Structure formats: C-alpha cells, structure tokens
Amino acid sequence: MPFSSLNARDVDRETALHVSAYHSNIDATTVLLPLVSISLRDKYDDNALITCTDEGHTHIAHLLIPHSSTTKNGIFRCNPLHISAAFRHVDIVRLILPHTDA
C-alpha cells in the first residue's frame, strides 16, 4: 500500500493512526507508526497522541510519545499533558513530563 494511502483521512479528518490510538489497538499502532505521518491532525486539530491521552491509553501513549510533540495544542488549546492531567491519567502524565519543559 502506498504511503499516501496510509495517511488517508475519514470524514472527521482522522487517519488510521488516530483510529488505532483511539481504540487502543497496540498491534495496529505499532505497524502504522513507522509508515505514517504522526503529525497529521483531525478536524479538532488533535494528533494521535492527543487522541490516546484523552482516552487514557497509556500503552499507546508510550509508543507515540517518542515520535510526537508533547507541547503542541489542539483546537481547545490543550496539549497532551493538559488533557491527561484533566482526566487524571496519572500514568500518562508521568510518561509525558520528561518530554516537556514543564
């Protein structure tokens, strides 16, 4: 499958990586990660890391953090650290903190 097809978007501008992160599909996320653009954002201006932190998927966040910006905000001016703290996803907060200037 061509690289561009892997970055295709649905009606909400989500990529396959957004969907695998949202559904906590570690196998799909692992396969997609080296093949897709991790910086693509959906209609809410969220990247896949914001999507998984919102859902509290620690193991997906662990995969995405080394490849993602932890300081870029989505449409609601919240970055992954804000979101994980707001939803009390303490394990994700601990993962993100070493990758921020907080």
From TrEMBL:
The keyword Zinc-finger does not apply. It is found in: Target cell membrane. SUPFAM superfamilies: Ankyrin repeat. One of its GO terms (biological process) is exocytosis. Its main location: membrane. One of its GO terms (cellular component) is other organism cell membrane. Keywords: Exocytosis, Membrane, Neurotoxin, Presynaptic neurotoxin, Target cell membrane, Target membrane, Toxin. This is Uncharacterized protein. It comes from Ornithodoros erraticus.
